[in-house]
Structure formats: structure tokens, C-alpha cells
Amino acid sequence: MESSKGFFDGVPSQTSFIFGIITGIAVVLMVSYLFGLPGTSATSRTNARVAENEAALVEAPAAELTPPPSAPVGPLPVIAKDDHVRGNASAKVAIIEYSDFECPFCSRFHPTMQQLLQEYPNDVRWVYRHFPLSFHPNALPAAVASECINELGGNDAFWAFADNVFGNQGGVGTALYEKIAQDQGIGLEAFRSCVGSGKYTQEIAQELAAGQAAGVTGTPGSFLVDANGQTQLISGAVPYAQVKAAVDAAL
């Protein structure tokens, strides 16, 4: 009976030794590639995936996670005269929304707030504050554009900007902002000068920092404030019924 020969049968021992070393190195490289040792490209790819996952969690739809309302973790800035307010300025309940013009879940939540004001025209006021997320490249430029629209066209023009941007989120960019400005009767030269000055960038950054200090970790992050000043944080694009229930409990 003829026995089958192994691969190394007949190979000189020195050659076998060298071949073994090469094979070992190849195995180490393969493990590094698959599992990512420190300093390897696989680690970089893993870190990138973690960042993507964190970004996804920041914007996870509340309809799926539905976190219960909670108290703010830090002081919430009081509503000031330079805030963007929609609805009855003397309403018993205020909802202060920290939002991002490029956030898809903010776009989903926008009609919820519009519906709320329609149902509670005298009892609810809606306050918009900026919270542009760093991984949304159009969020900060849109926030700056909205402030220039507000400066040149007033509070109603600001809310027209918000409605248009959230209603046309796939087209965010300079062309859309300038069209909104023109529709609001604002001259393009003045609008472009305001945007180019960058004078609102620091103010927007301060709003974001204040939101973070109060407990906002993603967008939309909204605070319901009742007539007694009691405050609760509502995270995410929660369904209309959930917001309505919170308002009814606060009235």
C-alpha cells in the first residue's frame, strides 16, 4: 500500500524552519487584520464604526426607544426676549426644543410641534434653540442662516425658515437659504453679508453648550416647562400622543 506523503516530506529541515517562520508571520498579520491590534488599520476601521454607531444612537427615533421624560441634569436657561418663540408668549406651558436643521428626527418632530400649537393655541408656546451636531455638515451653516433671516426679517421669517428647511431637508444648502430669504422679502446682498460675517457662530455654540449642560445628548431634545417652573426633559422625536399627554398633565 502506498502511503500518502505530507507536504514537508523530503524538504530539508532548514527550509522547513524558514517556511514555518514565514507561515507564523502570515498568521499574525491575518489576525491583526481581522481583529485589529493597536496601531493597525483594522483598529481605525473599528473606531470609525463605533463613531457611526454612537451617531446613530444619538439620533435613535424615540418611537423605537421611547425614553420616559426625565428631569434636566443642569440649569435650563430661562426664556429670553431674543429666543425664537412661536405661539402665545404668555402660554402656561413652554416646550423648549434644542434642534438641528439637518437632523432627520428633528424633521420628523417638527410636524408634531406644529400640530400641538394648533390644538393648544393659547396654552403652549414653542421655543427653538440651536443644537447643531458635529457630524451634520450643514447644521451649523443652516443655523447661521436662520439667525440672519431672523435679524433681517424678524421672528415670523425665522419660523418660515424652519418650516421650509425641515420640509425640504434633502435640499439644505445655500440655494435653499437664499430662496427663503427672498421669499421673506430680504435682500440677498444683506443676507449674504450677514452670513459671511460669522457673527452668530459663537451665540449658536453657547446655545449648544447650554443644552448639553441641561442634559441634551442628541436631537431633538425638548424641555417641557409648566406654569410652576417644573421642568422635564423629553428626548427624541416622541409620538404626538406622548407629547400631548405630557402637556395635559402640565395644564
From TrEMBL:
Entry similarity comment: Belongs to the thioredoxin family. DsbA subfamily.
Protein name (Swiss-Prot/TrEMBL): Thioredoxin domain-containing protein
Organism: Candidatus Uhrbacteria bacterium RIFCSPHIGHO2_02_FULL_53_13
UniProtKB keywords: Disulfide bond, Membrane, Oxidoreductase, Redox-active center, Signal, Transmembrane, Transmembrane helix
Tree of life domain: Bacteria
InterPro entries membership: Thioredoxin-like_fold, Thioredoxin-like_sf, Thioredoxin_domain
PROSITE patterns: THIOREDOXIN_2 (PS51352)
TM region positions: 16-35
Record GO terms (molecular function): oxidoreductase activity
SUPFAM superfamilies: Thioredoxin-like
Span of domain Thioredoxin: 54-251
